[in-house]
């Protein structure tokens, strides 16, 4: 059983389009995250979501908006895609009551042309 | 702001050689985590260190947390091709919400058979 799943795995789209990436975790964790990993492999946190509290990294453009319908899901919507948005996006989850180790999804490779 | 630095950025070794990556934090950390990301894969949690001077071993991997809890290292003895990947250290992000991690930029290990 997949612990943290993401769809789609690959996403190729043109500049200016709007797209969404979905994430689901079946671990019963209370906190979920979105990370962006660029071509140099730098992992940067974009959002964290815990008990309906959203913490936004101030460097993230407001074209990015996370949406959490429930504790097991945290989707990422991106408006007006730009070339610089091309990256791998990882969803992750953790249980803040335990070790705080994070479980990552398989990633979504976004390519903006 | 808070920083977690890792060196080296890249390491190429011959199979059977040892490998070490070093992690330094600008602030004292309550704990440090290590993750491994295989090529094309997602980060996978390896271990968490909590105590000052702590040393933990996982088969050929030895993890150490410095006495001042500002630095850490991962040492692999007699590397194998299965060790290929990028190794990240991560510490709590004190500027973010609880459970947020700040990742080092990673050390990419390649192993020549």
Characterization of the model:
The complex is a heterodimer of chains A (113) and B (113). With 113 residues, chain A is mostly beta strands. Chain A has strands spanning 4-7, 10-13, 19-25, 31-37, 43-50, 53-56, 64-70, 73-78, 87-94, 103-104, 108-112. In chain A, strands 2, 4, 5, 6, 9, 10 and 11 form a 7-stranded mixed sheet that branches. A 4-stranded antiparallel sheet of chain A has the order 1-3-8-7, with no helix packed on it. In chain A, strand 7 (64-70) and strand 8 (73-78) form a beta hairpin. The radius of gyration of chain A is 13 Å and the shape is globular. The model of chain A has no long low-confidence stretch (mean pLDDT 91). Chain B has 113 residues and is mainly β. In chain B, 0% of the residues lie in helices and 54% in strands. Chain B has no helices and 11 strands. In chain B, the strands form 2 sheets. In chain B, strands 2, 4, 5, 9, 10 and 11 form a 6-stranded mixed sheet that branches. Chain B has a 5-stranded antiparallel sheet with strand order 1-3-8-7-6, with no helix packed on it. In chain B, a hairpin with an 8-residue loop joins strand 9 (85-92) and strand 10 (101-103). Chain B is globular and about 40 Å long. Chains A and B meet through strand 5, strand 9 and strand 10 of A and strand 5, strand 9 and strand 10 of B.
SSE map:
The complex is a heterodimer of chains A (113) and B (113).
Chain A: E1 4-7, E2 10-13, E3 19-25, E4 31-37, E5 43-50, E6 53-56, E7 64-70, E8 73-78, E9 87-94, E10 103-104, E11 108-112
Parallel strand pairs in A: 2-11
Antiparallel strand pairs in A: 1-3, 3-8, 4-5, 4-9, 5-6, 7-8, 9-10, 9-11
Chain B: E1 4-7, E2 10-14, E3 19-25, E4 32-37, E5 43-49, E6 55-58, E7 61-65, E8 71-76, E9 85-92, E10 101-103, E11 107-112
Parallel strand pairs in B: 2-11
Antiparallel strand pairs in B: 1-3, 3-8, 4-5, 4-9, 6-7, 7-8, 9-10, 9-11
